[in-house]
Amino acid sequence: MAKRVVGIAFWTVCAAMALPLACSAAEDGGGVAGGDGGATAAGGKGGGSAATGSGASGGGGGLNIDAGTGDGALSDANACQAVTQKAEPVPLDMYIMLDKSGSMQGSKWSSTVSAITAFANDSQSAGIGVGLDFFPDNPECAASTYSNPSVPIAVLPGNAGSVVGALGSVSPYGGTPTLPAMQGALSYAQTHAVKNPNHVVVIVLATDGQPNDCSSSVGGVSSIAQQGANGSPKVLTFVIGVGSALSNLNQIAQAGGTGNAFIVDTGGNVGQQFIDALNKIRGAALACEYLIPTPEGGTIDPEKVNVTFTPDGGQPEQWPKYANQAACPASGNGWYYDNDQSPTKILLCPSTCSMVKNTKGQVDVLFGCATQKPS
Fold first, then answer.
1. Which residue has the higher pLDDT, 54 or 101?
2. Is the per-residue pLDDT at 205 higher than 90?
3. Which residues in 129-275 belong to E strands, given as ranges?
4. For residue 11, is pLDDT > 50?
5. 56-87, pLDDT tens digit by residue?
6. What is the mean pLDDT of residues 179-184?
7. Spatial distance between the Cα atoms of 205 and 240, rounded to a whole number of angstroms
8. What is the DSSP letter of 288?
9. To which H or E segment does residue 287 belong?
10. How many domains does the chain have?
């Protein structure tokens, strides 16, 4: 995957803003303030300490969010006498469901624990919410076992100690009851997403084997992942497979809306491959949803918002707005609101999201000019 550096500049008309700023598109922008509202952790199983997060979305995975000068924006920005408004990336929350079956014993387990520990303590993860649970657990086949996390989702770095402590408190044993583990994970993640409607909430399923216990199968687990991807609120499922001959795990990731699984080759550096996968997940999850901030001197007219993308070394392209995801084109670029009547987020169409994840460039959001619609 190509390294992505995505800059986001929010613009608004000077006349509507009543700001003590010069009406100039060359106004320098500062760094981005993060999104408010990290989750508050209630005490979970496994002795994780409660933690309250109020941080913003963290950077990661090559994603660099800046409120810039607007270089490369379309000429209508100058015609509207735009000024720069800082952007707020959508906060990200990860619920890691980690396989601790007997086959994970040895270097696979120690390397995986080291990788998650490093990720939790990485400064690039600051502001991201992370929660953790393990499977199997008792009662092994009950979905409710896995909807009560060992470490509830809360913001890093504050929650890092609880994550690391939980990792050190368990040892691998037993089988691979992936179906109830995913059912419980989705239940918890969706409940968390309802309580945090402006967050992106994802499940990270990390396993070294095919689902086998408690009537588990790849097809059954894929069905649960698909429920999350198609649900409201939407919860995507990323998959990390530790070992060889795990290509069937791609089916789970595809059903969960995230493409292929990340496969960690046990013949190489397991820990580094695992943390690389987590970093890619962090970047991918942050690429396609943006909060709409409240201007300092006025309100936003949702009919006067435009989105452009400028690839490195290329020319800016303005994308049309669609009514919703279902109206997005199968190919080509575009965007839509989370709610046309009361929008809070700008969402990229699926094909556009895929392109942005793999293309180095800059996304700009322009306020003040009539929204471009599909031709």
1. 101
2. yes
3. 129-135, 151-155, 200-207, 236-242, 262-264
4. no
5. 333 333 333 333 334 433 444 445 555 445 44
6. 98
7. 6
8. S
9. none
10. 2
Question: Cα–Cα distances in Å, from 227 out to 247, 338, 350?
Answer: 21, 19, 17
Distance of CA 316 to the CA centre of its chain: 25
Instruction: Answer yes or no: do 318 and 280 share one domain.
Output: no
Alpha carbons 193 and 67: distance in angstroms, whole number:
27
Above 80 in pLDDT, residue 36? no
pLDDT of residue 154: 97
3-state secondary structure of 228: helix
Domain end: 245, 260, 285, which one? 285
150 shares a domain with 206? yes
For 279, the token pair is 């970093």
Rounded to whole angstroms, the Cα distance separating 106 from 221 reads 26
CA angle 73, 76, 81 (to 5 degrees): 95
Dig out the tokens for 119 from the structure. 């990720």
Residue 32 lies in a domain: no
Q: Which of 172-181, 184-193, 211-220, 364-373 has the lowest mean pLDDT?
A: 364-373
Q: Report, in angstroms and rounded to the nearest whole number, the Rg of the chain calculated over CA atoms.
A: 21
Ramachandran category for residue 168: left, alpha or beta (phi over 0 → left; psi -120 to 50 → alpha): alpha
Tokens read off for 315: 């020319």
373 vs 304: CA distance, rounded Å: 11
